DUF883 family protein
Amino acid sequence: MENSIDSKINSARDGVTQIGNNLRADAHAAIDKVADKVPPTTDRLANSAHNGVDKVADGVNKVADTVESTSDRLIARGKQVSASCKALTESGRSHVRASPAISVLLAAAAGYGISKLLSSRSAK
């Protein structure tokens, strides 16, 4: 399951990066086409447009980096939660094996309490 989440996050990150690269290349090509058809005095405007496209692409790259670092933190946190759940499960198993009679009594008491809570809500 973790590999599936990791691969989805990696694929999303790669998609964002690829979109940024494609947008940058398309924008540069469009600017070059326009600049070739317009008099040379527009070189300054073309350079400004290129700089603007580069700034936008850099912003997309920063977003991709932020997504990557956030996904890495989420993956690490997920692994910690998974390990904690496994430890808690094993601890519960050892307590049940150590004293099964008390475990059955606690489970019955919890079930009785939950049934009382739910029945009082449905009666209202």
User: Anything to note?
Assistant: The mean pLDDT is 84. Residues 98-123 form one domain.
